[in-house]
Design brief:
Mean pLDDT: 95
Order of helices and strands: EEEHEEHEHEE
Shape: globular
Low-confidence stretches: none
Helix content: 10-25%
Largest sheet: 6 strands, mixed
Number of helices: 3
Strand content: 35-45%
Structural class: alpha/beta
Number of strands: 8
């Protein structure tokens, strides 16, 4: 599972022309599910993201987590995170999980994040979406559950 974590002042998503989800101060998450991902990948990343200290404390140090600042999340599915650009000029998406399994793991990830006490809104899986956001920092982090697979 690959996730782009973007600290935001606010973010919203429109799916097929209809407002779908939004968040205030918090995180915009672009969530990609790749073949071989399991519920364990979703659990690990949800726990990491909920506890990630990337919000400033009173001294200006990144020392606070989403719950510490009362932040929320907008999670948007994004199969293009599984792109392989190693050959030619057109990305290949063969590493992306099949839609039904990817949707299930995306929803499971969002549920696990909610179970960590984080308010989560979402886009619409598989829809044509447009995201509007104001980056904060900007702080952008790439998370890949692959790095924890050897620790399981």
């Amino acid at each position: 599972m690959k996730i782009v974590i973007q600290r935001v002042l606010h973010a919203s998503v429109t799916a097929d022309g209809v407002p779908a989800g939004k968040c205030g101060h918090g995180l915009l998450l672009l969530v990609g599910v790749v073949q071989g991902d399991t519920e364990r990948d979703a659990e690990i990343l949800a726990a990491k993201i909920a506890k990630m200290r990337i919000f400033n404390d009173d001294a200006g140090k990144m020392n606070r987590s989403l719950p510490d600042v009362g932040g929320s999340v907008l999670a948007v599915s994004n199969f293009t995170l599984a792109a392989d650009i190693s050959h030619g000029n057109r990305p290949s998406f063969t590493d992306a999980e099949k839609p039904d399994a990817a949707d299930r793991l995306y929803e499971y990830f969002c549920a696990r994040l909610r179970a960590e006490g984080v308010p989560v809104e979402t886009g619409v899986f598989g829809a044509d979406m447009q995201i509007d956001m104001t980056a904060d920092g900007p702080i952008t982090i790439l998370a890949d559950s692959e790095i924890w697979k050897t620790e399981r």
